[in-house]
Write a structure and sequence with these properties.
20 strands; four-stranded mixed sheet; TIM Barrel; about 475 residues; five-stranded parallel sheet; single chain
């Protein structure tokens, strides 16, 4: 298997054919391994993700309307505007005159957002490079313990379980740095990436702290409102006290505080939203992106699964897997699971991973084209910092961003920007958009399905820094 990594280099991928059809599955989103210091750490079975499930009544397939939303008063929270200095990506979203087309909003988001993958790939830097090169701002949903050294992981008091310990079945990890860095250096590198991404206009949201799913003790699926409040308090502490918690001297200015975090996604998309959403609203949050929904639906405040809430719900959506009659969620893990059960420890011939890469890209393209030429419902793509199957899904997403974020009327922005913009959209105007009551636009640069995207960035590995010490590396 060819090893490819590093941020910044552009390259092409060979064309391929779609993978063979499989049984229709809608995967829950929870990776079965966590990367710790370059080692794939298998989780205890009680903490591992549940197997993918069939679409439920609350998870309609693509093209099918979801249950009517539950309305609630608009929030009164005032959020400071995003600084414009050093911003990457498109201009800010602006009001749309009545009767005109809305922009095609695309939100690319990442769960966890640790600085490095496998101790080798400087993935946070890579996606910042993609944003700068391809006119995109992104939402990085941070796992709080990535701001702790491994010997400080016990500061996280997991609801229903107690103090965490690095390397146990408890699905939680401290800082994920490049190989050769000390733990303090890894936390510092994480903080610098967060700081610089905020300066560029990207968003930091929360993916909470632990990552235990299913029905085992300590699972987020069993969290009460008290448990969720405990999670948020601890996340806030990990952000606001990162320098103190890790003894960093001189301290690093993150450039934001926990009060600037206004959105969330739960681990595995699980949890009792009736318990969670009031806690999020009390913390001044604007949105959550844990429920699932239909690709053709414009966002609502609340959903049938959440109860009345002032929060915007930005769901991962059911979309067709290209070349099949199956539906899946719009996330990299779900592509991976559908193609081979996401057996990321297995090695495959280059032709097979190239086929999966192309199918992933074409799936994203098909989702985008349906909305771009249709009612312009926002496109939501959920992802992880990963190199699964020789980087198939990372490559596919970077190619998608390169191909589409510079098209006319396309705005690749953050969830936070979308929420602030929707706050200003009159309900009757959004209803007209939902119904597609505006002149539609023909895509003058349609995708070449089955073909790669020339010029897209691909990840590259970190390289050793001369004189920086044994094993030291630089992105």
């Amino acid at each position: 298997m060819t090893k490819r990594v590093a941020h910044g280099r552009r390259g092409n991928r060979p064309a391929s054919v779609p993978a063979r059809p499989r049984t229709l599955l809608l995967a829950m989103v929870c990776a079965a391994v966590m990367v710790v210091g370059g080692v794939a750490l298998k989780l205890d079975p009680s903490a591992a993700a549940p197997p993918p499930r069939e679409p439920s009544r609350s998870t309609p397939p693509a093209g099918v309307s979801s249950p009517p939303p539950v309305t609630a008063p608009a929030p009164t929270t005032t959020v400071a505007p995003i600084p414009r200095s050093s911003r990457v990506g498109p201009p800010p979203l602006v009001p749309v005159p009545a009767g005109q087309r809305p922009p095609q909003v695309v939100v690319v988001s990442f769960d966890g957002s640790g600085a490095a993958v496998d101790g080798t790939y400087p993935m946070y830097q890579f996606w910042r490079d993609v944003g700068r090169a391809d006119r995109a701002r992104m939402s990085f949903l941070l796992s709080g313990p990535y701001l702790l050294t491994h010997d400080q992981i016990g500061r996280y008091d997991a609801p229903q379980l107690g103090a965490a310990r690095q390397g146990l079945g408890l699905a939680v990890s401290g800082a994920l740095g490049l190989r050769g860095l000390s733990q303090s250096q890894a936390v510092s590198a994480q903080m610098v990436q967060l700081r610089d991404s905020v300066t560029e206009g990207h968003e930091i949201g929360t993916h909470f702290n632990g990552h235990i799913c299913g029905q085992s003790r300590g699972s987020v699926a069993r969290f009460s409102a008290t448990d969720w409040a405990q999670e948020l308090r601890q996340f806030d502490n990990m952000v606001d006290q990162a320098n103190v918690n890790n003894g960093l001297n001189p301290p690093i200015d993150l450039g934001f505080t926990s009060k600037d975090v206004v959105g969330s996604r739960t681990p595995c998309l699980e949890g009792d939203f009736h318990a969670l959403y009031p806690v999020l609203a009390q913390h001044g949050y604007l949105y959550d992106t844990s429920p699932t929904g239909a690709a053709t639906d414009w966002p609502h405040r609340g959903a049938a699964t959440t109860g009345p809430t002032p929060l915007w719900v930005f769901p991962l959506t059911g979309i067709p897997l290209y070349g099949t009659h199956r539906s899946m969620l719009s996330m990299d893990y779900n592509l991976c699971y559908d193609q081979d059960g996401c057996q990321i420890d297995r090695s495959y011939p280059a032709a097979q991973t190239a086929s999966w890469r192309q199918q992933a890209l074409d799936t994203y393209r098909q989702y985008f084209e349906t909305s771009y030429g249709g009612n312009r419902a926002p496109v939501f793509l959920g992802n992880h910092f990963e190199m699964w199957h020789a980087g198939a899904y990372t490559d596919a997403l970077a190619a998608f961003v390169h191909e589409n974020c510079s098209k006319p009327e396309v705005e690749c922005v953050t969830y936070k920007e979308l929420a602030l913009w929707l706050n200003q959209v009159p309900p009757d105007q959004q209803a007209a958009w939902q119904a597609g009551q505006f002149p539609h636009l023909l895509d003058l640069r349609p995708p070449a399905y089955g073909q790669p995207v020339p010029g897209a960035l691909v990840p590259q590995p970190a390289v050793a820094v001369p004189g920086a010490g044994p094993g030291a590396a630089s992105p």
